[in-house]
Amino acid sequence: MDNSATKIATAPLPTRKTLRSRKNIPFQVLRFAVFNIRMLKMVMRAHQ
Fold first, then answer.
1. Sign of the alpha-carbon dihedral angle for 6, 10, 11, 17
2. CA atoms of 48 and 43, how far apart (whole Å)
3. Does residue 6 belong to any structural domain of this protein?
4. Based on C-alpha coordinates, what's the Rg of the chain?
5. How many CB atoms lie within 10 A of CB 34?
6. Does residue 35 lie within any of the structural domains?
7. What DSSP assignment string belongs to 9-31?
8. Average per-residue pLDDT in the chain?
């Protein structure tokens, strides 16, 4: 049958460090900028 509820209940929970980094605005801005730079590089390579 469908045991989704048990799978959700046994899923690993994030650590305190992970939760802290997810809530840290400067860290998220940095990750966003790095991701955008990587995407920009990929697009620039594709257009050559």
1. positive
2. 9
3. no
4. 18
5. 10
6. yes
7. HTSPPPPHHHHHHHH-HHHHHHH
8. 92
